[in-house]
Backbone:
């Protein structure tokens, strides 16, 4: 099922802008009586070669195997990482929780989830416009600043946001928008402004320069990191990894990737696409062990799904049992 959720205003990153979140929802029903079902939500992402049509087709293609008894464990090898598998994997977890009468966190062996401080995203725009948006959100604990503009004015954006939100902790996300030539200067501007993390400054596959320069603040892989197979190539270039369920192909792989990140010395960031609380709910479990949390997708929408996650100031609360998991 495809759904469209209007965004409050416009969400802009270095690659473009959008005014709605288009999501695909998968639902798995218990065949015995059809009264029990699990749901999962994903966001097809063109950056990774996905579309609503391709994700929907992938889910439809595996429908006969699901009807024949394909399990969540089987799913991990039956489909590649990505949005389609994410929707099904999260639907499996939701259904398994209902079958067992236990919460998903119990099934995973995790402790009861707690409220977490989440980032709030400031879309890329001119320095004055970003400063205005940051001032409005300056009471929040953690702000994430979208950068990577071709106009080369990111240092001014950083300074403007810092001046507008002097007490907030700041993360920046360049979305592959910087170059090897301006990397050092931008990192220095971030350090001067007290930025605590920089996400994906260089394009995937063109990030070797990160291994050859001092990194005054931690650098986090996003587009360069998908599932556990991505991790060896990140060594020496990145200090942290942004794990998103739409990249890993679901909560199952995301939890395994987080464990491997910790073994390999990478800090973990739990991230998201712009989506409803149905997509955020499983990510809240992943985020319990994360150093940085960015699960603000529903806050960027004009309206969230009924019964969704509760957001209070900078905190995001775990999902209610009746909503997911």
Residues:
């Amino acid at each position: 099922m495809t759904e469209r959720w209007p965004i409050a205003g416009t969400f802009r990153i270095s690659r473009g802008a959008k005014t709605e979140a288009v999501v695909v929802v998968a639902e798995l029903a218990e065949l015995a009586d059809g009264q029990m079902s699990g749901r999962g939500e994903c966001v097809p992402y063109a950056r990774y070669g996905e579309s609503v049509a391709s994700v929907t087709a992938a889910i439809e293609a595996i429908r006969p195997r699901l009807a024949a008894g394909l399990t969540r464990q089987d799913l991990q090898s039956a489909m590649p990482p990505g949005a389609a598998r994410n929707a099904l994997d999260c639907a499996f977890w939701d259904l398994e929780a209902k079958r067992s009468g236990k919460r998903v966190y119990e099934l995973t062996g995790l402790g009861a989830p707690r409220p977490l401080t989440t980032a709030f995203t400031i879309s890329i725009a001119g320095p004055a416009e970003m400063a205005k948006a940051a001032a409005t959100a300056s009471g929040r604990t953690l702000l994430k600043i979208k950068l990577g503009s071709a106009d080369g004015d990111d240092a001014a954006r950083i300074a403007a946001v810092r001046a507008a939100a002097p007490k907030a902790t700041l993360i920046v996300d360049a979305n592959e928008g910087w170059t090897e030539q301006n990397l050092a200067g931008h990192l220095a501007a971030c350090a001067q402004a007290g930025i605590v993390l920089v996400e994906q400054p260089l394009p995937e596959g063109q990030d070797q320069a990160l291994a050859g320069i001092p990194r005054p603040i931690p650098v986090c892989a996003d587009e360069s990191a998908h599932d556990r197979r991505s991790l060896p190539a990140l060594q020496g270039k990145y200090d942290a990894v942004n794990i998103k369920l739409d990249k890993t192909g679901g909560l199952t792989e995301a939890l395994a990737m987080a464990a491997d990140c910790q073994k390999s010395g990478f800090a973990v960031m739990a991230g998201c696409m712009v989506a409803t609380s149905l997509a955020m709910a499983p990510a809240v479990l992943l985020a319990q062990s994360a150093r940085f949390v960015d699960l603000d997708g529903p806050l960027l929408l004009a309206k969230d799904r009924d019964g969704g996650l509760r957001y209070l100031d900078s905190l995001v609360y775990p999902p209610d049992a009746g909503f997911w998991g």
